[in-house]
Specification:
Layout (H helix, E strand, L loop, with lengths): L2 H24 L5 E9 L5 H17 L4 E9 L4 H13 L4 E4 L8 H9 L4 E4 L5 H4 L5 E6 L1 H18 L11 E7 L5 H16 L4 E8 L4 H15 L5 E4 L2 H13 L9 E3 L5 H8 L6 E3 L2 H17 L13 E4 L2 E3 L2
Parallel strand pairs: 1-2, 1-3, 3-4, 4-5, 5-11, 6-7, 6-8, 8-9
Antiparallel strand pairs: 10-12
The structure holds beta-D-galactopyranose and calcium ion (CA).
Length: 335
Amino acid sequence: MTKNKMRAAGIIFCICLLFLGACEKNSPKTRDKLHVGVTYYDQSDTFMNELIACIREKMEGLGGKDLDITMTVRGASGSQQIQDDLVEEMIYGGCQVLCVNLVDRTDPSDIIELARKNNTPIIFFNREPVEEDMLRWDGLYYVGADSEQSGVLQGELAAEAIQNNKKIDRNKDGKIQFVVLEGEPGHQDTIIRTENAVNTLKKHGIELEKLGSGIANWNRAQAQNRTMQLISQHQGNIELVLANNDDMALGALDAYQKLNYAENELPIFFGIDGTDVGLEAVREGKLSGTVYHDKEGQAAAMAKLAKAAGTGKGMEDIPFQNKKYIFLPCTKVKK
Ligand code: GAL
Ligand code: CA
């Protein structure tokens, strides 16, 4: 090549570069992408399905002209093994942040190990891992309700109802005969809600006599069965039913209806969650009260945290308690 030809080629090359640069400036910037994986313990849980719908809505709402948020949601059918596999699929499928509602809250080791190795942050929600597990890695967070408060509020609702209506003590012995319907054994909400509801009633000066309790795993049909058994042991003597969630309070009511109990022979029923069916039952006076489990607040906190943890921007704006926890308050609901 002659000197002149080389110079001409150089000039053309530079013009091309300038041209390319200009093109880049004028073309719209491609949006950043955030792929969020969500997995939850069981697809048949009423409250969880409502919470998941809120999470979808809040995540979609956070996308915008700079960020394209996509979500994969998978239920784990009550199996930790299935959930471990789902988490692996999601991580290898390109999820940059995961939201995990554990099947077994005491068994997150495999999930944490995999996430840590792949540097994929995890927001655990609703089923709280033990502290020792939460401390295994910096990229682990928890969003949930304040379990203690939900129990206290249920106790307050029941105490108010009992103090305002002498007829609730149907056998007029000055004590309230009660039963408890409990969620899954080992779930933080089961243990803490029951304890705080009962203690709050006592603090308000209500004399209690516990007739029995049944584990119904948050489930309406199981609660109906367990209540049928409790009724067969105690006949019409039960004056108060405290259920760890709305579905189980409704299952208890189903049992009385199935046995054709008259209105004035029924105990009073209290749930927790404020699910659609739960709120409807409070409106109709079938449940005496429930405690609203702030699914909108939890979903909004999760979406904001997922965006921050997944993009690495905005972590300083997250109002953590104890560095990795976000607890949302509950509220009382009565007619
Ligand atoms: C509780 C909720 C229950 C059930 C459970 C599942 O917080 O009150 O209805 O959804 O979580 O973990
Ligand atoms: Ca009584």
